[in-house]
Amino acid sequence: MERLLIESALGRVRAALERGDYDQAVAIIESLRPADQAEVFSELDEEDQETLLPRLSPEDSADILEELDEEEAAELAQTLPPRELSRIVDEMEPDEAADLLGDIPPEQAEAVLASLEDPEEVRPLLVHPDDTAGGLMTSEFLALRRRTTVAEALEAIRRWHPEGHVVDQLFVVDRNGVLRGTVSLRQLIMADPQQRMVDIMDPEVISVPAGTDQEECARLMDRYDLIALPVVDEHHRLLGVITVDDLVDVLQEEVTEDIQRLGGAQPLGGPYLDTRVTRVARSRIGWLLLLFVTETLTGTVLRLFEHELAAVVSLTFFIPLLIGTGGNAGSQTTSTIIRALAIGDIDLGDALRVLWHELRVGLLLGIAMGTIGYIRALAWGTSHAVASAVATALLMIVLWANVVGSTLPLLASKLHIDPAIVSGPFMSTLVDATGLLIYLSVAKLILGI
Asked: Is residue 134 included in any domain, yes or no?
């Protein structure tokens, strides 16, 4: 239904543009919700985007730039004069405005800042990297003093007009701005109007330093069901707040990056169709070359056992079966461990428990696959000796794949490398070569060749 609505709106906007009826095109876009506005806008040609954006109201232009991909929004913003862009940035959330200004040329960003109504809402946010708590937080929040009464707090909320902001959770600070507690909106409504914040606040506050990685912030908010996460400096002074809508963006970004790494490629950093072909190729070529070099180990193993393979040709029948099983078993284990690390089910201190767990899993899977492999080998008319070699190798390969698949992500995490990098094609390629070495070594021992 939503897709049909967007396609219909896009068609009407394009028809209006072809007629030169810009007012009609603007009216159609402004009638949509912000997310739909951005999707329709992103489908238009660059020339049409540059023509329409200044004609939209600053509020709608701000919504569109906030919803667009960061790279696309920055390219569009660079086409606007600083004064025109400042009118739009004034309507943006401070954290979104800081992200946008950080992606455009410094001289343009300074010119825009100079024209803003309140540049100090945005300027402090520019010093923090985008992927940290400081880069995610917004400077628009309501902080209450400890001696503020409930009645005064409610009046402050009414004056604040927190449109689009989370007000379910409010923060209590002392005279130095140090975070001392939190108060929920429900508490304020239920409390006596003359009670003070110090009497009803929760002093146990979960907060993060400004340099905390965005993935850790998302994990904390998910673990403790937080709708807002305060960000503090080294003296525990309240700097800003990360809201739940920021959490959704972070989770989507992190999942996208992990999935791209699982496939053996570097993250694109933007929508697929908006990414240049050369950039997509660059994101993949490094891993392809590495995997190509690693895969040559398989050929080296085959050359080492050339005599044995020539003596018992039937051994070659099972090479795809064995290395495929090992690669799949390793990838299964790796993806399980990576996910457990990501959601906090395990950490580096659990390495031995994880290894013991996967050894037992690998033993069960290896026995099952070995039994099936033995029966399959006999069904192909091979000797009992060859079938035994296949069965034994399957057991050992699955065990080995589970060991490698469980330890590599933990080792990568220890070295501060994204565990997703060691999964997928890399894991399969590594287990292919080592699994083949195990298989042919076992065959040589059992068959006496």
From this structure: no
Q: Which positions ≥6 away from 217 have C-beta within 8 Å?
A: 133, 136, 208, 229, 242, 247, 250
Pairing of β 238-243 and β 228-232: antiparallel
Burial class (CB in 10 A: 0-12, 13-18, 19+), 375: exposed
Same domain, yes or no: 7 and 102: yes
**What percent helix, strand, coil does the chain show, rounded to 5?**
70, 10, 25
Distance separating alpha carbons of residues 262 and 129, to the nearest angstrom: 25
User: Which among 161, 159, 150 is positioned nearest to 185, based on CA atoms?
Assistant: 150
Q: Does residue 19 share a domain with residue 103?
A: yes
pLDDT tens for 123-157 read 888 888 878 888 888 887 888 999 999 999 999 88
Residue 144 in contact with residue 173, Cβ under 8 Å?
yes
What single letter denotes the amino acid at residue 163? E
pTM here is 0.61
Neighbours of 393 (CB within 10 A): 28
In a domain, 58, yes or no: yes
Contact between 173 and 145 (Cβ < 8 Å): yes
411 and 283 housed in the same domain: yes
Give tens-digit pLDDT for 275-299: 667 766 776 676 667 666 666 666 6
179-184 sheet: strands from edge to edge: 143-145, 169-173, 179-184
Element (H, E) at 209: strand 208-209
Q: In degrees, to the nearest 5, what angle opens at C-alpha 444 toward C-alphas 439 and 449?
A: 150
pLDDT-based confidence at residue 430 (cuts at 50, 70, 90): confident
Q: Domains in the chain: how many in total? A: 3
d(CA 311, CA 423): 36
Pairing of strands 208-209, 228-232: parallel
State the residue range of the domain holding 90: 2-127
